[in-house]
C-alpha cells in the first residue's frame, strides 16, 4: 500500500469511478482508470483504500491526511 498512489486516486477520481475500477479488478479485468501498483492485488488495495478515504472525507468532513490516518489505524487494528 502506497500512500502517494491513494492520494492521487482520491484527488483525481470520484467514488463512483473508483468503485467501478475496484469491481473491474475484482473481476480480473483492466480498470478504466489508471491505478498504480505492482500487481492486481496492490491495485485493488489502492482502489479500496481510496474509496474508504474519500467516503470518510465526505461523511466526516475530514482532510485527506486525517482520513488516511484513520484508514491506516483501521488496518493496523485488523492486523493485530
From TrEMBL:
From the Swiss-Prot or TrEMBL record, give the protein name: Uncharacterized protein
Amino acid at each position: 500500500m502506497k500512500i502517494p498512489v491513494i492520494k492521487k486516486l482520491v484527488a483525481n477520481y470520484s467514488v463512483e469511478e473508483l468503485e467501478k475500477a475496484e469491481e473491474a479488478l475484482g473481476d480480473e479485468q483492466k480498470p478504466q482508470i489508471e491505478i498504480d501498483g505492482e500487481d492486481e492485488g496492490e491495485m485493488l488495495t489502492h482502489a479500496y483504500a481510496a474509496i474508504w478515504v474519500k467516503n470518510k472525507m465526505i461523511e466526516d468532513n475530514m482532510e485527506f491526511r486525517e482520513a488516511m490516518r484513520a484508514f491506516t489505524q483501521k488496518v493496523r487494528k485488523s492486523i493485530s
